[in-house]
Amino acid sequence: MPIAHINGTDLFYVAEGNPEHPAIVFSNSLGTDHRMWQAQAQVLSKEFYVIRYDTRGHGQSASPSGPYQLSQLGQDVLALLDFLGIQKAYFCGLSMGGVTGQWLGIHAGQRLHKLVIANTAARVGTSDGWLSRAATVRADGLDSIADTAAARWFTPAFIKACPEKVAVLSEHLRHESREGYASCCEALAEADLREQISRIQIPTLIIAAQDDLVTTEADARFMQQQIAGSHIVLFSASHISNIEDEQSFTQALSTFLTA
Question: Model's pTM, two decimal places?
Answer without folding.
Answer: 0.98
